[in-house]
Amino acid sequence: MVDLNYDNFGIIRKITKEEANMPKNWLSFINSEKNLNYMEKFGVIAILKALQAYGGPTKAALVKEKASEYPFFTDQDREKKSSNGQSQLEFRLQWAMSNLKKAGLLHSPQWGVWALTQMGEDVNTNNFDVWDDVYSISTPIWQKNRLNNQKKKDEILEYSNINVASLDADIIEETDDSELWRDQLLQRLTEMNPYKFEELIVNLMRKIGIKMDTTSKSGDSGIDGIGYLRTPELMTYKIVLQTKRFTKGAVTGPDISNFAGTINGHNADRGIFVTTSTYTNDAISRSRQGANLITLVDGDELVDLLFEHRMGISEKAVVVINEKMFPKD
């Protein structure tokens, strides 16, 4: 549970219907006493403080890592996982970043990188209210986007014979966000055909610079790829790859130990383990033992790598208007 003793930011403040023009379920979440709600609101403060500490554009993963270290959050908050193995705190921090962006305090100079706007740099967290300064601005934008998306769906249905059940697969909601797309992509990865997923990761390894081939589907001891990496120093390493398309749970220590044995069996120098999930602390510890070190790639880093090498991902420019700067009254 977050430490509410740090609440100087209106975290537990209740918002009335008159203050907020939003769907009933949204208002219910804003006013809920659930830890997820508090985590996101404290996340707003933590993200601001993290970016202030870095002093310039910073990769999203580093921002969230720094934000999670602030004492608003307990060790239990940091360790809590959802059913798909994703960190609940990390997920709430992503939403916090998205709301900060819509409030005009953050911007993304490039995908996967965040920076404070001038308004964000001018923020004094000692005199800050998460509703007045963030959610009262971001919520109407979310609501407007939701209505626009619904209107777009209605128009397509009116003038076409598209099946309603398949419409969401063809119309991707435009969240104009530089982080929420990550969850959509990770979900797609967990739903992939397992053999196609293996091929995707092997092709990613090739783009990174490892000359890798897929292995046969039988008798490969769980190995999905074998390749060779030549360094600028003219050193060549034999690499073996294993992938796990997990939808629930994290990769465990025994999983890594089994893979380490397979590395030795193939006379390889290094191993790379890729999952759509996360790793237990025991798994991380075992990956660093022995002569043949294992590189662990979790779902979050996998998304980063796919974006970096533009595999199935493209980006577009989006303009966001901060309505607070242009008051009607």
From TrEMBL:
Residue ranges occupied by any Restriction system protein Mrr-like N-terminal domain in the UniProt entry: 45-123
Entry-linked InterPro entries: Mrr-like_N_dom, Restrct_endonuc-II-like, Restrct_endonuc_IV_Mrr, tRNA_endonuc-like_dom_sf, Type_IV_Methyl-Rstrct_Enzyme
Entry keyword Nuclease: yes
Superkingdom of the source species: Bacteria
Keyword list, A-Z: Endonuclease, Hydrolase, Nuclease
GO MF annotations in UniProt: endonuclease activity
Residue span(s) of domain Restriction endonuclease type IV Mrr: 190-306
PANTHER family hit by this protein: MRR RESTRICTION SYSTEM PROTEIN, TYPE IV METHYL-DIRECTED RESTRICTION ENZYME ECOKMRR
Name used for this protein in its record: Restriction endonuclease
Organism: Leuconostoc kimchii
